[in-house]
């Protein structure tokens, strides 16, 4: 089923507040006329509040790059959902491979975060993806299936239907290597099968599945043209307004 495409920028650990505001102003100029896609940016925590004021009446939505699942308390260095909501966020990226690999986030922890986000009405962008070794060993579908099942463990359908999934092959992130549109589409179709198994066909068909991993202004159109690819989660190319806006404004 065709859904509105979503183009999401994951800024990762980039941009001081001044730099962030410059980028957002440029983006507002370049994408504010776009009516056919949903546009989201996930800047660093420190810039969220200020950016939220700037984009308030625009077509750009705000997301965070992570959060903790507890509401408040002695969790030094962590950010809660209420802090994100008060800073203007509607979305939160969870389970990104950099958090899994560099910061040892487990499927169980990610599951708690997803559950909490859904309970407080933040839309999670739940990331999954295989490493190069896993792909070469033919384990892609098994790994993704496992990540999805564990990430969504004991989450009821009425909450799960609000989730966005991002398929981000680890070997394609920041490497300039992109999954071919056909290969990415196949994995997205597998993800829908897994969702059908856990929930039902309707939820699986309605769930937005983004592709991430070296998506840029050159390859976006061919990836976004695939039937199972509902948008992109973009790292490097989201840091340059002209590149991000070409992805947003590409004719698809
Ligand atoms: P990339 O990052 O576009 O720089 O490969 C994507 C991501 O990690 O979300």
Give a description of the structure.
- The structure is a single chain.
- With 252 residues, this protein is of the alpha/beta class.
- It is 42% helix and 16% strand.
- It is built from twelve helices and eight strands.
- Strands 1-2-3-4-5-6-7-8 form an eight-stranded parallel beta barrel, surrounded by five helices.
- Helix 3 links the parallel strand 3 and strand 4 (91-94).
- Helix 7 (140-151) packs across helix 9 (181-198).
- The two termini are 15 Å apart.
- The model has no long low-confidence stretch (mean pLDDT 97).
- The site of 2-phosphoglycolic acid has 13 residues, from strand 8.
List the helices and strands and how they pair.
Elements: E1 5-10, H1 17-31, E2 37-42, H2 48-55, E3 60-64, H3 81-86, E4 91-94, H4 97-101, H5 107-119, E5 123-128, H6 132-136, H7 140-151, H8 157-160, E6 164-167, H9 181-198, H10 201-206, E7 208-212, H11 220-224, E8 231-234, H12 241-248
Parallel strand pairs: 1-2, 1-8, 2-3, 3-4, 4-5, 5-6, 6-7, 7-8
Helix pairs in contact: 1-2, 1-12, 7-9
Bound molecules: 2-phosphoglycolic acid.
């Amino acid at each position: 089923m065709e859904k509105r495409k979503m183009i999401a920028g994951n800024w990762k650990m980039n941009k001081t507040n001044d730099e962030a505001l410059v980028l957002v102003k440029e983006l507002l100029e370049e994408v504010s006329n776009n009516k056919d896609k949903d546009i989201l940016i996930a800047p660093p925590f420190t810039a969220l509040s200020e950016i939220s004021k700037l984009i308030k009446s625009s077509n750009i939505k705000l997301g965070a790059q992570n959060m903790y699942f507890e509401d408040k308390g002695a969790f030094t260095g962590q950010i809660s959902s209420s802090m994100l909501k008060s800073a203007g966020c509607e979305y939160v990226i969870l389970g990104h491979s950099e958090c899994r690999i560099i910061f040892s986030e487990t499927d169980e922890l990610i599951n708690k975060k997803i559950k909490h986000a859904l309970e407080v009405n933040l839309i999670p962008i739940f990331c999954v993806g295989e490493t190069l070794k896993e792909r070469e060993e033919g384990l892609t579908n098994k790994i993704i299936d496992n990540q999805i099942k564990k990430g969504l463990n004991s989450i009821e359908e009425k909450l799960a239907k609000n989730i966005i999934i991002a398929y981000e092959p680890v070997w394609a992130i920041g490497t300039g290597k992109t999954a071919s549109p056909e290969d990415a589409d196949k994995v997205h179709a597998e993800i829908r099968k897994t969702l059908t198994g856990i929930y039902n066909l309707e939820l699986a068909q309605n769930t937005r599945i983004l592709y991430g991993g070296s998506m840029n202004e050159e390859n976006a159109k061919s990836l976004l043209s695939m039937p199972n690819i509902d948008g992109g989660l973009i790292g490097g190319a989201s840091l340059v307004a002209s590149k991000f806006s070409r992805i947003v404004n590409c004719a698809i």
